[in-house]
Amino acid sequence: MRDRELYQQILGLQSPWKVSDIRLSLTDRQVVIVVVRDPVVSLTCPVCGQSCRVYDHRKRMWRHLDTCQLQTVIEAEVPRVSCPEHGVQQIAVSWAEPGGRFTALFEAMVIAWLGEAPIAAVAALVGLSWDQVDGIQQRAIDRGLARRKPAVVKNLGIDETSYQDDHEYISVITDRDRRVVLEVLEDRKKETVLAH
Ligand SMILES: [Zn+2]
Question: 156 has which bridge partners?
């Protein structure tokens, strides 16, 4: 079917993953894209990379960017492998971080909006809870810290955002060249920023 090819391209899926089914629910305004992994392609342990046998499969779902104004969800039976050294491990998928419930593109969109609006406003916009949006922000900070090298930041950005009752502010410090969040500070006092 042509719509499978369309979603394959929209999601940027590559071998061994492909779209196997599309479930459309107009009443829920949701489309579920079912993705399967080619079973012929061998599996490797995500920790050490050695080939492993499949242990079982776990159904996982990820919220993706909306398509055609429909909430879009990727669903896949993700294999778990049994590594002699590292035990049972779920293999990585190309569209999301391990354990994440949103695709990397969806999280990137939320992070981009957090530069323009407070958490509560972004949460209302995408239909998530405050905690879920905060979790996406925290993971972005963690990624930024993990990638952080002792390099000179040439283009530092400090964006203030008010949250909750409009009286509390956070300052989001970003490396604008690398588009990485370096720090989120609890208030907007100059001393707080300088202390970091
Ligand atoms: Zn291993």
Answer: 175
- Percent of the chain exceeding pLDDT 90 equals 55
Q: Which of 68, 96, 124 is the last residue of a domain?
A: 96
Q: Are residues 121 and 71 in the same domain?
A: no
Q: What residues does 52 pair with on adjacent strands?
A: 43
Mean pLDDT of 63-72: 91
Number of domains in the chain: 2
Using the mean position of ligand 1's atoms as its centre, give its distance from the Cα of residue 39 in Å.
Answer: 19
29 contacts 16 by C-beta, under 8 angstroms: no
Average of per-residue pLDDT across 133-157: 78
CA of residue 17 to ligand 1 center, whole Å: 22
38 with 106, same domain: the answer is no
Residue 165 CB neighbours (<10 A): 7
Q: Which domain holds residue 17?
A: 1-96
| d(CA 80, ligand 1 centre) in Å | 12
* Ligand 1 center–CA 43 separation, angstroms: 11
User: Is residue 30 domain-shared with residue 77, that is, in the same domain?
Assistant: yes
161/120 same-domain check:
yes
121: phi then psi, degrees, rounded to nearest 5: -70, -40
Distance separating alpha carbons of residues 126 and 98, to the nearest angstrom: 22
C-alpha 16 to ligand 1 mean position (Å) = 20
User: Rounded distance, CA 22 to CA 17, Å?
Assistant: 14
